[in-house]
Amino acid sequence: MYPSRFRYEAPHSLDEAISILRDGGDYAKVLAGGQSLVPLMKLRFASPELIVDINNVPGLDYHRADADGTLRIGALCRHADLERSALLKGTQPTMTAAAPLIADPIVRNRGTLVGSLCHADPQGDWASVVMALGGSVVARGPGGRRAIALRDFVTGPFQNVLEPDEIAVEAVIPAAKGVRSGGYLKLERRVGDFATVGVAVAIETSDGKVTNAGIALTGVGGSTIGADEAASALVGQPLTAETIAQAADLAAGAARPRTDHRGSAEYKRHMVRTFVVRLLTPRDDAGAAHGAADGEADGIAERAA
Ligand SMILES: Cc1cc2nc3c(=O)[nH]c(=O)nc-3n(C[C@H](O)[C@H](O)[C@H](O)COP(=O)(O)OP(=O)(O)OC[C@H]3O[C@@H](n4cnc5c(N)ncnc54)[C@H](O)[C@@H]3O)c2cc1C
Q1: 92-111 pLDDT tens trace
Q2: Would you state the CATH architecture of domain 7-53?
Q3: Closest atom of ligand 1 to CA, residue 193
Q4: What CATH fold (topology level) applies to the domain 63-173?
Q5: Where exactly does CATH 3.30.390.50 map onto the chain?
Q6: Are 17 and 52 in contact (CB under 8 A)?
Q7: Binding pocket residue ranges, ligand 1, CB within 6 Å
Q8: Which of 24, 25, 39, 191 is the 20 to 30 A CA-CA neighbour of 285?
Q9: From the alpha carbon of 54, which atom of ligand 1 is closest?
């Protein structure tokens, strides 16, 4: 199908883009990578009257770290930039694990992390990753800039708190205070598919104990789920088979999966539990798991492949 008629603007500055949005039609949309918006328009699930394409706005295609380690990802930083990033390697294990699991190379070459957060698809992978890392979105509008924690940014399926004349200019990941570890696991029916279940884990440790933890779930509820109780249970504790099993049970309890063509609710909940165990179980350099959780952790590797 073809999209409905719309006005198209491609401004060359952020100020211009915001002013077009402010004066624009009743139903305007920002276009970044177009990898979610364009399919929706072609299916006529979205029929914006005005498209404001930000791809000509200079200075938004970055990802960089501040001196204190805070990571900033600009609105035109593509999934592929993050997948190939030397900056993320070794410092952002949760992001590094997620980037190659998003869609396929064609989508990754155009789609953006910030666009994915704005799209707020319950099956979007980046929202879980950014939530687990305690990240936020910076919006710019006629009134200036404001930072919104991701857990407040996404208000429901395909809904966010941006005003119609605001543009999300960057996502921000706070610097780690301890040693950061974690990862992202995704169960998909075939390579390139959306998640049946996804789990993001980001932890910081110091002196053998967890000092900060974030766990977030993809595809098992009406929006991205922060498994806060599970994460809190880890803080102040060493990672042992017992503390890991407790966190995994709490995360599975936080999931709100529905039975559908991708699997039963019980199966998805079980996968959340198993993914949390696997992500938290310490591994040696050869990738082998240690501790009482090993059997379950290794078993899932075959099922998730
Ligand atoms: C075949 C296919 C498979 C996919 N598989 C996956 C997958 O496995 N996992 C996954 O997470 N995603 C997947 N996606 C979605 C993909 O990751 C998109 O790139 C992403 O969801 C949106 O980013 P975008 O830059 O393409 O945004 P766009 O499509 O340009 O925009 C999406 C929405 O966000 C708004 N928006 C975008 N940027 C801004 C901004 N800076 N400020 C304000 N509003 C903004 C737009 O107005 C629109 O409403 C898939 C897409 C396709 C086509």
Answers
A1: 999 999 999 999 999 999 99
A2: 2-Layer Sandwich (3.30)
A3: 8
A4: 3.30.465
A5: 179-302
A6: yes
A7: 29-37, 39, 75, 102-103, 107, 111-112, 114-116, 118-119, 124-126, 162, 167-168, 194
A8: 191
A9: 41
Q: What is the mean pLDDT of residues 193-210?
A: 96
Atom of ligand 1 nearest to the CA of 124: 11
Nearest CA to ligand 1 atom 12: 124
- Starting at the earlier edge strand, list the strands of the sheet with 50-53: 7-9, 50-53, 28-31
Q: Which residue minimizes the CA distance to atom 40 of ligand 1? A: 168
**pLDDT beyond 60 at 298:** no
pLDDT in tens, 113-131: 999 999 999 999 999 999 9
Q: How far is the CA of 200 from the centre of ligand 1 (A)?
A: 19
Report the nearest atom of ligand 1 relative to the CA of 38. 29
Name the closest-CA residue to atom 38, ligand 1.
115
Q: Ligand 1 center to residue 4 CA distance, Å?
A: 19
Read off φ and ψ for residue 100, nearest 5 degrees.
-75, -5
Q: What is the pLDDT of residues 257-278, one digit of tens each?
A: 999 999 999 999 999 999 999 9
Nearest protein Cα to ligand 1, atom 33? 119
According to CATH, the topology of domain 179-302 is Enolase-like; domain 1 (3.30.390)
